[in-house]
Amino acid sequence: MDQIDRERLKEVLEFIRSHAPRPVLSSLEAELAVIEQYIVNARAPRIALVGRRGSGKSSLVNAIFGAPLAETGAVLSTTAAGTWYQYEGPNGSLEVLDTRGLGEGERPAGATEEDAVAENLKAVRDRCPDAILFLVKAVDVDAWIQNDLEQVAALRGAISRRHGFEPPVIGVLTQVDQLAPADVAEPPYDDPEKRANIRLALEKLAERMERLLDRPVRVFATSAYMRYRDGVRVVDRRWGIDELVSYLVETLPGEAQLTMGRVAGVKAAQTKIAGALIQSTASAAAAVAATPIPLADMPILTGMQVLMVTGIAYLAGRRLSREAALEFIGALGVNVGAGFALRELARGLSKWLLPGGGSLVSAGVAYWGTYGLGQAAVAYYIENQPIEAARKLLEQSRDRIVKKP
Ligand SMILES: Nc1nc2c(ncn2[C@@H]2O[C@H](COP(=O)(O)OP(=O)(O)O)[C@@H](O)[C@H]2O)c(=O)[nH]1
Ligand SMILES: [Mg+2]
């Protein structure tokens, strides 16, 4: 199911590009490109998981979704080497390359280690991973992981040669609940001894990865264990997943960030991306307002605001459609006249405050109006606040126009 009304959003962008006069467009294009990349071109993240059987690859996928989508704990290594899976959650999908690590005791019948390497490399020919996650069981961090890291390096090199893009390799220490002391199995792991052991394992992992991969790496400690009975989650030992997801959201290419934030439902990450979108859109709105465009500035401002609100709604798990955004803007009591009202206000203010220098104020009005609308959308969609609270945020932002022209 495509959650993105891509064609209609493209129309909005095309409208803006075709109606903005050249001098505005040149200063606008960088911001428009950001909006286009993040919202109109939004797609599922592609993540390669490298780790031995039992390291917790499938469990990590489930922990990110908060649902038992991937099969865990298979007794035999039945995972064919290098298979892409598409996992579909209620809020979108992830494309996951599940590789078979080296050094495994059992393999699928007839398979050799060379087969595994070859198949993993084949899997990245047509589909380029955005990031490689290297998973190591916390209790295994002292084990011989050199072979596994060589495989990671080979995979990274193959991707880079094939696609001209070197994906970041992120270290994931899994199953930290299993680290000593064994009786501290439930998060949060505030116990000083547990924390010290987690820190030590993280340091070891980072040191080994950096040595063998020849790059600085980020490492994260996680616990992913969940147990379901009759479709109900009866054990939830997830810990550190939000931090990993937030980092992924920042690190993935722009096109994949919204979906990552959406799929995992991590509000902090969603708010962060929303902030970047609001910043870009508000700057673009200010650029439009700074140069008067007879008749067209209102629909251009509104168009950009619709794209921004649409992106924020999508982040929060709503459908990406311009109708929903217009509905929200309408529910705030500003209707499609948002851009228009702002512009009128600017003209009114400029006469009062800066005779002959009105463009400065109107840029400020467009900026803070768009900023306020973005804050309102964050409150409503991401923080689930009532529409009245959202409206208040918009009004507060507008007040800044008067107080800080
Ligand atoms: N205690 C604990 N067990 C885990 C954790 N993550 C995975 N497991 C268990 O480890 C086994 C292997 O996990 P799985 O996700 O299937 O690993 P994969 O082979 O890499 O996909 C399963 O029995 C999981 O339930 C964790 O964080 N803590
Ligand atoms: Mg698995």
TrEMBL record:
Residues 46-145 form the G domain. It is found in: Membrane. One of its GO terms (biological process) is tRNA wobble uridine modification. CDD domains: Ras_like_GTPase. One of its GO terms (cellular component) is cytosol. One of its GO terms (molecular function) is GTP binding. This is G domain-containing protein. It comes from Symbiobacterium thermophilum (strain DSM 24528 / JCM 14929 / IAM 14863 / T).
